[in-house]
Amino acid sequence: MKIITLDEITFNNFANKHKYRNYYQTSSYGRTIKNQGYDIHYIGIIDDNNSLLGASLLLYKEVFMNYKIAYAPRGLLIDYTNANNINELTNRIKKLLSKQGFMTLKIDPYVPLNIRERNGKIVNINNEGNVIIENLKTAGFEYLGPNLFFENEKPRFEAIVILNKNIQDIYKSFEKRVRNKIKKAIRSGVEIYKGGKNEIPIFYEFVKKKYNRPIEYYIDLYNNFENHIDIYFAKLNTETFVITNRIQYEKEIEVNNTLANKIQTTDNNNVKKRLINEKIESDKLVSVYKKNLVWATKLLKDNPNGLLIGSCFNLIYDNVCYLIIEGFNQKFRSLNPNYLIKWKMINDYKKMNLKYINLNAVSGEFEKITKFSGLNEMKLGFNSLITEYIGEFELVINSLPYNLYKNLNKEKKK
User: Fold this and answer.
1) Which long-range contacts (CB under 8 A, 24 or more apart) does 318-322 make?
2) Count helices and strands in the chain by DSSP H and E runs
């Protein structure tokens, strides 16, 4: 077995056909991340007959006293079930990277461990998963899982919406609250459309505080993945929004007046008490709907052509849509633009015959209430399945400088 350098074409030819292929292990992603302060390298693993056994994009950077760290995003691409090959590969990588001044190599293979229902129940087990974990641990990798939240470089749990049914059945499979939120967004005047490269700065305003990525990262993704990027926008039709709020306000005024008349005409004390309580609640709604109408009217005056309130950035790879990131104006959270965008995506990608939509990360805690429960509730309400990956592994190559580096980072965080 030998480790060699691959050119982009040879690497892509191997990576795009591999069992664990993914968009992180592509030259398009490599070119993107190279502009974010990383060096990149494509390695190949060959047997004694010079046949490729595996390959990987490696990202690396110098971080401490001329020492470097390396990361194979969603890699390496190799058969992890062959324990002998994994042992030999680990030894050879360790020797090679040690000579080149590396402290550590981190990997997070694109290997599913379990498929779960939205309640967390396991419905499919990858019988190779635990074998692979043990093979990597035996070879010398430290296992950093099985964590439940977002401790890793990449999420260990992702929500998947399968597109193998007709669109009506897909919609019916959503939780009732999700269907109601979609309907409310439509009634309120939220409209969804696709944007292009020139609108990346507008999209970026919605996400720039969510994740530490400069706008150039998304521009590079757009350029490097050519025609495989979709940018969705949620736009509020402010005229429709006024009409909706006026109707809601006027309906509640009618209810309120009817209750007032009934209170005046009834002699039954128990009935009167119930009506008074209903009137008090209606008074509250009238006040809320009046404020909403005033707000909607001002929005129309200030934004007669509508107002953008949310966006998301998608990447299409291997007949799958990956939701990279989304962001919304929290002032319009009650209008549910994020739900309507996902419903629009489901419609569009169903027509394109995509296999599924990957809605990105969810937490692996399905029983206890956590700060991520709302995230899970939103994404899993679309009748999503959950892919649980085996997790992250680290190969320490030079422990002394690496331990010093980690300790210094801990002090910085403090």
Assistant:
1) 318/21, 318/22, 318/23, 319/353, 319/354, 319/355, 320/354, 320/355, 320/356, 320/357, 320/358, 321/230, 321/345, 321/349, 321/354, 321/356, 321/357, 321/358, 322/23, 322/358, 322/360
2) 13, 16
What lies within 8 Å, CB to CB, of 259 at 6+ separation is 275, 278, 279, 282
The Cβ of residue 318 has, within 10 Å, a number of other Cβ atoms equal to: 12
Query: Which segments of 237-355 does DSSP mark as H helices, in order?
Result: 238-265, 269-302, 337-351
Amino acid at 361: A
- Report, as an integer, the average pLDDT of 138-164: 93
Residue 412 has pLDDT above 90, yes or no: no
Q: Is residue 49 part of a domain?
A: yes
Nearest CA to 320 out of 295, 294, 357 is that of 357
- Which tokens sit at 103? 């402290």
Q: Residue range 254-271: average pLDDT?
A: 93
Q: Do 323 and 402 fall within a single domain?
A: no
CB hemisphere CA count around 313 (13 angstroms): 22
Segment 284-295 shows an average pLDDT of 96
Query: Which domain covers residue 323, as residue numbers?
Result: 165-237+306-354
Q: What percent of the chain has pLDDT over 70?
A: 99
141 located within any domain: no
Show the tokens assigned to 289: 């709907």
Tens of pLDDT, residue by residue over 155-183, are: 999 999 999 999 999 999 999 999 999 99
Cα 389 to chain center, whole Å? 14
Is the pLDDT confidence value at 1 over 60?
yes
Q: Is the pLDDT of residue 414 over 60?
A: no
For residue 411, is pLDDT > 80? no
Same domain, 190 and 275: no
Q: Can you tell me the distance from the alpha carbon of 189 to that of 20, in angstroms, rounded to the nearest whole number?
A: 42
**Which pLDDT belongs to residue 323?**
98
Cα 29 to Cα 329: distance, rounded to the nearest angstrom? 29
